[in-house]
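Sequence, C-alpha coordinates quoted for completeness.
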Amino acid sequence: MASGRLFACLLRRNIIYLYEIAGRSAMLPDHIKTLLEENEIRFVLAQFVDIHGVAKTKSVPVHCLENILTDGAGFAGFAVSGLGMAPHESDFMAIGDIETLTPVPWQPGYARIACTGHVDDAPHPLDSRHILQAQIARLSAHGWTMNTGLEPEFCLFARREDGRLEPYDGTDSLDKPCYDYKGLARASAFLETFVANLQAIGFDIYQIDHEDANAQFEINYTHSDALTSADRFVLLRMGAGEIANQLGMVCSFMPKPVSSRTGNGMHYHLSIADAEGNNLFHDDDDPQGLGLSTLGYQFLSGILAHARGLCALAAPTVNSYKRLVVGGSASGATWAPVYVTYGDNNRSAMVRVPYGRLEYRLPDSGSNPYLVTAGLIAAGLDGIEKGLTCGAPQNVNLYDYSATDCRELGVDVLPQTLNEALDALEADPLFREQLGAPLINEFIRMKREEWIEFNRHVSQWEIDHYAEFF
Protein backbone atom coordinates (compact mmCIF):
# COMPACT_ATOMS: atom_id res chain seq x y z
CA MET A 1 0.00 0.00 0.00
CA ALA A 2 2.82 2.39 0.90
CA SER A 3 4.54 1.81 -2.44
CA GLY A 4 1.21 2.35 -4.22
CA ARG A 5 0.68 5.70 -2.50
CA LEU A 6 4.25 6.69 -3.28
CA PHE A 7 3.76 5.85 -6.98
CA ALA A 8 0.51 7.86 -7.10
CA CYS A 9 2.22 10.80 -5.44
CA LEU A 10 5.13 10.71 -7.87
CA LEU A 11 2.73 10.38 -10.78
CA ARG A 12 0.77 13.45 -9.73
CA ARG A 13 3.99 15.41 -9.18
CA ASN A 14 5.11 14.43 -12.69
CA ILE A 15 1.87 15.77 -14.21
CA ILE A 16 1.90 18.97 -12.15
CA TYR A 17 5.53 19.50 -13.19
CA LEU A 18 4.29 20.02 -16.73
CA TYR A 19 2.27 23.06 -15.72
CA GLU A 20 4.64 24.66 -13.26
CA ILE A 21 8.07 24.85 -14.82
CA ALA A 22 8.98 27.90 -16.89
CA GLY A 23 5.35 28.98 -17.21
CA ARG A 24 4.65 26.25 -19.74
CA SER A 25 1.00 25.92 -18.78
CA ALA A 26 0.20 28.98 -20.90
CA MET A 27 0.48 26.82 -24.01
CA LEU A 28 -2.08 24.25 -22.91
CA PRO A 29 -5.84 24.86 -23.02
CA ASP A 30 -7.68 24.10 -19.79
CA HIS A 31 -9.45 21.09 -21.30
CA ILE A 32 -6.08 19.56 -22.20
CA LYS A 33 -4.79 20.05 -18.64
CA THR A 34 -7.95 18.39 -17.35
CA LEU A 35 -7.55 15.49 -19.78
CA LEU A 36 -3.97 14.87 -18.63
CA GLU A 37 -4.88 15.00 -14.94
CA GLU A 38 -8.08 12.96 -15.07
CA ASN A 39 -6.48 10.20 -17.12
CA GLU A 40 -3.21 10.24 -15.16
CA ILE A 41 -1.22 10.49 -18.37
CA ARG A 42 2.47 9.66 -17.91
CA PHE A 43 3.57 9.40 -21.53
CA VAL A 44 2.45 10.87 -24.84
CA LEU A 45 2.84 8.94 -28.08
CA ALA A 46 3.97 11.39 -30.75
CA GLN A 47 2.44 9.63 -33.75
CA PHE A 48 2.60 10.04 -37.52
CA VAL A 49 2.27 7.55 -40.39
CA ASP A 50 4.63 6.27 -43.05
CA ILE A 51 3.65 6.21 -46.71
CA HIS A 52 1.66 3.00 -46.12
CA GLY A 53 -0.45 4.64 -43.42
CA VAL A 54 1.17 2.55 -40.67
CA ALA A 55 1.43 4.33 -37.30
CA LYS A 56 4.91 5.34 -36.13
CA THR A 57 5.48 6.70 -32.63
CA LYS A 58 7.88 7.92 -29.99
CA SER A 59 7.00 7.73 -26.33
CA VAL A 60 7.51 11.13 -24.70
CA PRO A 61 7.25 11.76 -20.92
CA VAL A 62 4.26 13.99 -20.30
CA HIS A 63 6.31 16.84 -18.87
CA CYS A 64 7.92 17.19 -22.33
CA LEU A 65 4.61 17.63 -24.14
CA GLU A 66 5.48 21.24 -24.95
CA ASN A 67 8.44 20.04 -26.99
CA ILE A 68 6.13 18.05 -29.26
CA LEU A 69 3.99 21.15 -29.83
CA THR A 70 6.92 23.43 -30.65
CA ASP A 71 10.06 21.73 -31.93
CA GLY A 72 8.42 18.33 -32.42
CA ALA A 73 9.62 14.82 -31.70
CA GLY A 74 12.69 13.97 -33.77
CA PHE A 75 12.92 10.90 -36.02
CA ALA A 76 15.62 9.69 -38.40
CA GLY A 77 13.62 10.01 -41.61
CA PHE A 78 15.70 7.45 -43.51
CA ALA A 79 14.48 4.80 -41.06
CA VAL A 80 10.82 5.28 -42.09
CA SER A 81 9.25 3.92 -45.29
CA GLY A 82 8.43 6.47 -47.93
CA LEU A 83 9.76 9.70 -46.46
CA GLY A 84 12.33 9.97 -49.24
CA MET A 85 15.11 10.92 -46.85
CA ALA A 86 18.79 9.97 -46.64
CA PRO A 87 20.90 9.19 -43.53
CA HIS A 88 22.83 12.47 -43.78
CA GLU A 89 19.75 14.73 -43.87
CA SER A 90 18.09 16.73 -41.09
CA ASP A 91 15.72 14.97 -38.69
CA PHE A 92 12.06 14.50 -39.48
CA MET A 93 10.32 16.48 -36.74
CA ALA A 94 6.80 15.33 -35.86
CA ILE A 95 4.94 18.41 -34.55
CA GLY A 96 1.79 17.61 -32.59
CA ASP A 97 -1.72 18.91 -33.16
CA ILE A 98 -2.85 19.60 -29.59
CA GLU A 99 -6.54 19.10 -30.41
CA THR A 100 -5.82 15.47 -31.34
CA LEU A 101 -4.42 14.63 -27.90
CA THR A 102 -6.38 11.55 -26.86
CA PRO A 103 -6.00 9.02 -24.05
CA VAL A 104 -5.12 5.50 -25.19
CA PRO A 105 -7.57 3.40 -23.13
CA TRP A 106 -5.96 0.06 -24.02
CA GLN A 107 -2.60 1.44 -22.78
CA PRO A 108 -3.40 3.17 -19.46
CA GLY A 109 -1.28 6.19 -18.64
CA TYR A 110 -0.63 6.97 -22.30
CA ALA A 111 -2.10 9.50 -24.71
CA ARG A 112 -1.74 9.82 -28.48
CA ILE A 113 -1.13 13.07 -30.36
CA ALA A 114 -1.33 13.12 -34.17
CA CYS A 115 1.63 14.89 -35.72
CA THR A 116 2.55 16.51 -39.01
CA GLY A 117 6.10 16.06 -40.23
CA HIS A 118 8.50 18.96 -40.73
CA VAL A 119 12.07 19.03 -42.02
CA ASP A 120 14.20 22.16 -41.66
CA ASP A 121 11.24 24.08 -40.21
CA ALA A 122 8.97 23.42 -43.21
CA PRO A 123 6.20 20.83 -43.71
CA HIS A 124 7.71 17.75 -45.32
CA PRO A 125 6.32 17.17 -48.84
CA LEU A 126 6.19 13.42 -48.31
CA ASP A 127 4.31 13.55 -44.99
CA SER A 128 0.86 12.05 -45.60
CA ARG A 129 -0.97 14.22 -43.08
CA HIS A 130 0.55 17.36 -44.59
CA ILE A 131 -0.56 16.21 -48.06
CA LEU A 132 -4.16 15.97 -46.83
CA GLN A 133 -3.96 19.31 -44.99
CA ALA A 134 -2.91 20.99 -48.25
CA GLN A 135 -5.96 19.62 -50.06
CA ILE A 136 -8.24 20.63 -47.18
CA ALA A 137 -6.85 24.17 -47.51
CA ARG A 138 -8.05 24.21 -51.11
CA LEU A 139 -11.56 23.41 -49.90
CA SER A 140 -11.30 25.98 -47.14
CA ALA A 141 -10.57 28.68 -49.73
CA HIS A 142 -14.13 28.14 -50.96
CA GLY A 143 -15.51 28.14 -47.40
CA TRP A 144 -16.09 24.38 -47.61
CA THR A 145 -15.45 21.44 -45.30
CA MET A 146 -15.14 17.87 -46.50
CA ASN A 147 -16.97 15.41 -44.25
CA THR A 148 -16.14 11.73 -44.44
CA GLY A 149 -17.53 8.64 -42.81
CA LEU A 150 -15.28 5.56 -42.97
CA GLU A 151 -16.48 1.96 -42.69
CA PRO A 152 -13.49 -0.24 -41.89
CA GLU A 153 -13.72 -4.02 -42.17
CA PHE A 154 -11.32 -6.44 -40.49
CA CYS A 155 -10.89 -10.13 -39.68
CA LEU A 156 -10.23 -11.84 -36.35
CA PHE A 157 -7.79 -14.71 -36.67
CA ALA A 158 -5.85 -17.11 -34.49
CA ARG A 159 -2.29 -18.03 -35.42
CA ARG A 160 -1.83 -21.79 -35.31
CA GLU A 161 1.38 -23.58 -34.32
CA ASP A 162 2.41 -23.97 -37.96
CA GLY A 163 2.02 -20.21 -38.51
CA ARG A 164 -1.25 -20.37 -40.44
CA LEU A 165 -4.00 -17.84 -39.73
CA GLU A 166 -7.48 -19.25 -39.29
CA PRO A 167 -10.76 -17.77 -37.99
CA TYR A 168 -10.40 -17.27 -34.24
CA ASP A 169 -13.84 -18.81 -33.78
CA GLY A 170 -13.63 -22.23 -35.41
CA THR A 171 -17.42 -22.45 -35.58
CA ASP A 172 -17.60 -19.36 -37.82
CA SER A 173 -17.78 -21.47 -40.97
CA LEU A 174 -21.07 -20.71 -42.74
CA ASP A 175 -21.08 -20.34 -46.52
CA LYS A 176 -23.01 -17.07 -46.13
CA PRO A 177 -22.00 -15.75 -42.70
CA CYS A 178 -23.07 -12.11 -43.16
CA TYR A 179 -25.06 -10.79 -40.17
CA ASP A 180 -24.87 -14.22 -38.51
CA TYR A 181 -25.81 -14.02 -34.84
CA LYS A 182 -23.51 -16.82 -33.68
CA GLY A 183 -20.50 -15.37 -35.43
CA LEU A 184 -21.18 -11.97 -33.87
CA ALA A 185 -21.90 -13.34 -30.38
CA ARG A 186 -18.82 -15.52 -30.24
CA ALA A 187 -16.55 -12.59 -31.08
CA SER A 188 -18.05 -10.47 -28.29
CA ALA A 189 -14.94 -10.61 -26.07
CA PHE A 190 -13.04 -8.59 -28.67
CA LEU A 191 -15.89 -6.51 -30.06
CA GLU A 192 -17.21 -5.32 -26.69
CA THR A 193 -13.73 -4.41 -25.43
CA PHE A 194 -12.86 -2.68 -28.70
CA VAL A 195 -16.09 -0.70 -28.83
CA ALA A 196 -15.83 0.34 -25.18
CA ASN A 197 -12.29 1.63 -25.75
CA LEU A 198 -13.33 3.59 -28.84
CA GLN A 199 -16.37 5.06 -27.12
CA ALA A 200 -14.18 6.19 -24.24
CA ILE A 201 -12.28 8.45 -26.64
CA GLY A 202 -15.25 9.92 -28.48
CA PHE A 203 -16.13 7.49 -31.26
CA ASP A 204 -19.91 7.59 -31.73
CA ILE A 205 -20.40 3.95 -32.73
CA TYR A 206 -23.86 3.09 -33.96
CA GLN A 207 -23.54 -0.39 -35.55
CA ILE A 208 -21.35 -3.48 -35.37
CA ASP A 209 -21.96 -6.41 -37.68
CA HIS A 210 -20.56 -9.68 -38.91
CA GLU A 211 -19.60 -9.19 -42.53
CA ASP A 212 -19.66 -11.46 -45.57
CA ALA A 213 -16.48 -13.44 -44.87
CA ASN A 214 -15.91 -15.82 -42.00
CA ALA A 215 -14.38 -14.01 -39.01
CA GLN A 216 -14.97 -10.63 -40.70
CA PHE A 217 -16.54 -7.64 -38.94
CA GLU A 218 -17.32 -3.98 -39.51
CA ILE A 219 -17.55 -1.09 -37.06
CA ASN A 220 -19.69 1.92 -38.06
CA TYR A 221 -19.27 5.29 -36.37
CA THR A 222 -20.50 8.77 -37.23
CA HIS A 223 -18.75 10.97 -39.77
CA SER A 224 -16.49 13.92 -39.05
CA ASP A 225 -14.34 16.36 -40.97
CA ALA A 226 -11.85 14.66 -43.29
CA LEU A 227 -8.70 15.24 -41.20
CA THR A 228 -10.36 14.02 -37.99
CA SER A 229 -11.65 10.93 -39.82
CA ALA A 230 -8.16 10.04 -41.04
CA ASP A 231 -6.62 10.64 -37.59
CA ARG A 232 -9.30 8.48 -35.99
CA PHE A 233 -8.87 5.62 -38.40
CA VAL A 234 -5.15 5.43 -37.67
CA LEU A 235 -5.94 5.31 -33.94
CA LEU A 236 -8.65 2.69 -34.57
CA ARG A 237 -6.17 0.39 -36.32
CA MET A 238 -3.67 0.89 -33.50
CA GLY A 239 -6.29 -0.07 -30.93
CA ALA A 240 -7.65 -3.03 -32.87
CA GLY A 241 -4.23 -4.61 -33.20
CA GLU A 242 -3.27 -4.18 -29.55
CA ILE A 243 -6.61 -5.23 -28.06
CA ALA A 244 -6.66 -8.33 -30.26
CA ASN A 245 -3.10 -9.16 -29.19
CA GLN A 246 -4.07 -8.83 -25.53
CA LEU A 247 -6.85 -11.38 -26.15
CA GLY A 248 -4.62 -13.81 -28.04
CA MET A 249 -6.06 -12.87 -31.43
CA VAL A 250 -4.76 -11.34 -34.65
CA CYS A 251 -6.84 -8.47 -36.02
CA SER A 252 -6.11 -8.21 -39.74
CA PHE A 253 -6.87 -5.26 -42.03
CA MET A 254 -5.30 -7.12 -44.95
CA PRO A 255 -7.33 -6.39 -48.09
CA LYS A 256 -7.85 -10.04 -49.11
CA PRO A 257 -6.78 -12.52 -46.42
CA VAL A 258 -8.75 -15.49 -47.81
CA SER A 259 -8.84 -16.04 -51.57
CA SER A 260 -12.37 -17.46 -51.75
CA ARG A 261 -13.98 -14.90 -49.44
CA THR A 262 -14.74 -11.20 -49.56
CA GLY A 263 -11.94 -8.77 -48.77
CA ASN A 264 -11.65 -6.03 -46.17
CA GLY A 265 -12.98 -2.84 -47.71
CA MET A 266 -13.17 0.63 -46.21
CA HIS A 267 -15.99 2.54 -47.87
CA TYR A 268 -15.78 6.34 -47.79
CA HIS A 269 -18.99 8.36 -47.40
CA LEU A 270 -18.35 11.86 -48.76
CA SER A 271 -20.04 15.23 -48.68
CA ILE A 272 -19.03 18.89 -48.68
CA ALA A 273 -20.54 21.33 -46.18
CA ASP A 274 -20.62 25.12 -46.20
CA ALA A 275 -19.74 27.34 -43.24
CA GLU A 276 -23.21 26.79 -41.73
CA GLY A 277 -22.89 23.00 -42.00
CA ASN A 278 -25.29 22.61 -44.93
CA ASN A 279 -24.64 19.60 -47.15
CA LEU A 280 -23.78 21.09 -50.57
CA PHE A 281 -24.10 17.70 -52.28
CA HIS A 282 -27.80 17.46 -51.39
CA ASP A 283 -30.58 18.56 -53.73
CA ASP A 284 -34.12 17.17 -53.60
CA ASP A 285 -34.75 18.52 -57.11
CA ASP A 286 -32.20 16.20 -58.73
CA PRO A 287 -33.96 15.00 -61.93
CA GLN A 288 -32.23 11.60 -61.60
CA GLY A 289 -33.74 11.12 -58.15
CA LEU A 290 -30.39 10.61 -56.41
CA GLY A 291 -30.67 13.75 -54.31
CA LEU A 292 -27.40 15.12 -55.72
CA SER A 293 -26.70 18.75 -56.50
CA THR A 294 -24.77 20.01 -59.52
CA LEU A 295 -21.75 20.39 -57.23
CA GLY A 296 -22.17 16.78 -56.12
CA TYR A 297 -22.31 15.52 -59.70
CA GLN A 298 -19.23 17.54 -60.63
CA PHE A 299 -17.28 16.13 -57.68
CA LEU A 300 -18.47 12.63 -58.63
CA SER A 301 -17.43 13.24 -62.24
CA GLY A 302 -13.92 14.12 -61.09
CA ILE A 303 -13.68 10.85 -59.16
CA LEU A 304 -14.83 8.91 -62.22
CA ALA A 305 -12.47 10.78 -64.55
CA HIS A 306 -9.44 10.03 -62.36
CA ALA A 307 -10.61 6.63 -61.10
CA ARG A 308 -7.81 4.51 -62.51
CA GLY A 309 -5.00 6.68 -61.15
CA LEU A 310 -6.75 7.13 -57.82
CA CYS A 311 -7.06 3.34 -57.60
CA ALA A 312 -3.35 3.03 -56.78
CA LEU A 313 -3.82 5.13 -53.63
CA ALA A 314 -7.07 3.44 -52.59
CA ALA A 315 -5.84 -0.10 -53.27
CA PRO A 316 -2.11 0.24 -52.59
CA THR A 317 -0.83 -3.34 -52.24
CA VAL A 318 -0.31 -6.40 -54.39
CA ASN A 319 -2.95 -8.12 -52.29
CA SER A 320 -5.50 -5.34 -52.88
CA TYR A 321 -6.14 -6.52 -56.44
CA LYS A 322 -7.24 -9.95 -55.31
CA ARG A 323 -10.23 -8.10 -53.84
CA LEU A 324 -10.97 -6.06 -57.00
CA VAL A 325 -11.69 -9.01 -59.30
CA VAL A 326 -14.21 -9.79 -62.02
CA GLY A 327 -16.23 -12.67 -60.59
CA GLY A 328 -17.81 -13.71 -57.34
CA SER A 329 -16.78 -15.18 -54.00
CA ALA A 330 -17.88 -18.22 -52.05
CA SER A 331 -20.73 -16.19 -50.53
CA GLY A 332 -21.97 -14.99 -53.93
CA ALA A 333 -20.40 -11.52 -54.37
CA THR A 334 -17.14 -9.75 -53.66
CA TRP A 335 -18.91 -6.48 -52.69
CA ALA A 336 -15.90 -4.74 -54.25
CA PRO A 337 -16.03 -2.65 -57.44
CA VAL A 338 -14.47 -3.64 -60.73
CA TYR A 339 -15.87 -1.02 -63.10
CA VAL A 340 -15.65 2.78 -63.19
CA THR A 341 -19.34 3.40 -62.57
CA TYR A 342 -21.80 5.02 -60.22
CA GLY A 343 -25.32 4.04 -59.30
CA ASP A 344 -28.22 4.72 -57.01
CA ASN A 345 -28.34 2.18 -54.18
CA ASN A 346 -25.99 -0.02 -56.20
CA ARG A 347 -23.35 -1.83 -54.17
CA SER A 348 -21.81 -3.33 -57.30
CA ALA A 349 -20.79 0.16 -58.53
CA MET A 350 -17.56 1.96 -57.67
CA VAL A 351 -19.55 4.92 -56.30
CA ARG A 352 -22.93 4.41 -54.66
CA VAL A 353 -25.18 7.42 -54.13
CA PRO A 354 -27.18 6.89 -50.92
CA TYR A 355 -29.19 10.06 -51.57
CA GLY A 356 -27.43 13.38 -51.22
CA ARG A 357 -23.92 12.04 -50.60
CA LEU A 358 -21.37 9.75 -52.24
CA GLU A 359 -20.06 6.38 -51.10
CA TYR A 360 -16.70 5.55 -52.67
CA ARG A 361 -16.44 1.77 -52.39
CA LEU A 362 -13.00 1.12 -53.84
CA PRO A 363 -10.60 1.65 -50.87
CA ASP A 364 -9.53 -1.25 -48.71
CA SER A 365 -8.70 -1.30 -45.02
CA GLY A 366 -4.99 -1.50 -45.78
CA SER A 367 -4.89 1.92 -47.41
CA ASN A 368 -3.43 5.17 -46.09
CA PRO A 369 -6.49 7.29 -45.16
CA TYR A 370 -4.62 10.58 -45.59
CA LEU A 371 -3.57 9.79 -49.14
CA VAL A 372 -6.94 8.34 -50.17
CA THR A 373 -8.79 11.40 -48.87
CA ALA A 374 -6.29 13.80 -50.42
CA GLY A 375 -6.63 12.01 -53.75
CA LEU A 376 -10.43 12.15 -53.56
CA ILE A 377 -10.39 15.90 -52.88
CA ALA A 378 -7.94 16.51 -55.73
CA ALA A 379 -10.04 14.48 -58.18
CA GLY A 380 -13.35 15.96 -56.98
CA LEU A 381 -12.13 19.56 -57.12
CA ASP A 382 -10.85 18.94 -60.64
CA GLY A 383 -14.38 17.88 -61.57
CA ILE A 384 -15.82 21.04 -59.98
CA GLU A 385 -13.25 23.42 -61.48
CA LYS A 386 -13.71 21.96 -64.98
CA GLY A 387 -17.48 21.56 -64.69
CA LEU A 388 -17.23 17.87 -65.59
CA THR A 389 -20.36 15.81 -66.13
CA CYS A 390 -20.98 12.08 -65.95
CA GLY A 391 -23.38 9.84 -67.82
CA ALA A 392 -26.45 8.11 -66.45
CA PRO A 393 -26.13 5.89 -63.37
CA GLN A 394 -25.69 2.16 -63.82
CA ASN A 395 -28.51 0.70 -61.76
CA VAL A 396 -27.85 -2.92 -62.70
CA ASN A 397 -26.00 -5.79 -61.06
CA LEU A 398 -22.57 -5.19 -62.55
CA TYR A 399 -21.35 -8.51 -61.20
CA ASP A 400 -23.40 -10.14 -63.98
CA TYR A 401 -21.36 -8.27 -66.60
CA SER A 402 -18.02 -9.27 -68.07
CA ALA A 403 -15.23 -6.81 -68.75
CA THR A 404 -16.11 -7.08 -72.45
CA ASP A 405 -19.77 -6.29 -71.72
CA CYS A 406 -18.79 -3.15 -69.84
CA ARG A 407 -16.39 -1.96 -72.50
CA GLU A 408 -19.19 -2.28 -75.06
CA LEU A 409 -21.31 -0.08 -72.80
CA GLY A 410 -18.49 2.46 -72.63
CA VAL A 411 -17.71 1.61 -69.00
CA ASP A 412 -14.03 1.47 -68.08
CA VAL A 413 -12.50 -1.33 -66.02
CA LEU A 414 -10.48 -0.60 -62.90
CA PRO A 415 -6.86 -1.80 -62.84
CA GLN A 416 -6.57 -5.50 -62.11
CA THR A 417 -3.02 -5.46 -60.72
CA LEU A 418 -0.94 -3.07 -58.65
CA ASN A 419 1.40 -2.60 -61.61
CA GLU A 420 -1.50 -1.56 -63.86
CA ALA A 421 -2.72 0.89 -61.21
CA LEU A 422 0.76 2.41 -60.91
CA ASP A 423 0.84 2.86 -64.68
CA ALA A 424 -2.47 4.74 -64.43
CA LEU A 425 -1.23 6.89 -61.54
CA GLU A 426 1.94 7.72 -63.43
CA ALA A 427 -0.06 8.68 -66.53
CA ASP A 428 -2.47 11.01 -64.70
CA PRO A 429 -0.78 14.41 -64.19
CA LEU A 430 -3.41 15.60 -61.67
CA PHE A 431 -1.95 13.74 -58.70
CA ARG A 432 1.60 15.00 -59.26
CA GLU A 433 0.26 18.53 -59.63
CA GLN A 434 -1.92 18.46 -56.52
CA LEU A 435 -0.34 15.92 -54.15
CA GLY A 436 3.19 16.79 -55.22
CA ALA A 437 5.71 15.10 -57.48
CA PRO A 438 7.97 14.04 -54.54
CA LEU A 439 5.13 12.08 -52.91
CA ILE A 440 3.85 10.46 -56.10
CA ASN A 441 7.34 9.58 -57.33
CA GLU A 442 8.26 7.97 -54.00
CA PHE A 443 4.96 6.11 -53.83
CA ILE A 444 5.40 4.71 -57.35
CA ARG A 445 9.05 3.80 -56.69
CA MET A 446 8.24 1.86 -53.53
CA LYS A 447 5.22 0.15 -55.00
CA ARG A 448 7.11 -0.88 -58.15
CA GLU A 449 9.62 -2.57 -55.83
CA GLU A 450 6.74 -4.34 -54.07
CA TRP A 451 5.41 -5.55 -57.42
CA ILE A 452 8.84 -6.83 -58.53
CA GLU A 453 9.38 -8.62 -55.21
CA PHE A 454 5.95 -10.24 -55.47
CA ASN A 455 6.60 -11.49 -59.01
CA ARG A 456 9.94 -12.97 -58.04
CA HIS A 457 8.48 -14.82 -55.06
CA VAL A 458 7.89 -18.54 -55.59
CA SER A 459 4.51 -19.31 -54.04
CA GLN A 460 3.17 -22.56 -52.65
CA TRP A 461 0.66 -22.58 -55.53
CA GLU A 462 3.54 -22.71 -58.02
CA ILE A 463 5.25 -25.51 -56.14
CA ASP A 464 2.00 -27.49 -55.93
CA HIS A 465 1.33 -27.07 -59.65
CA TYR A 466 4.78 -27.29 -61.23
CA ALA A 467 7.24 -29.16 -58.98
CA GLU A 468 6.42 -32.56 -60.52
CA PHE A 469 4.44 -31.45 -63.56
CA PHE A 470 7.12 -31.78 -66.21
The longest strand covers residues 145-159. Residues 1-11, 13-25 have pLDDT under 50 and may be disordered.
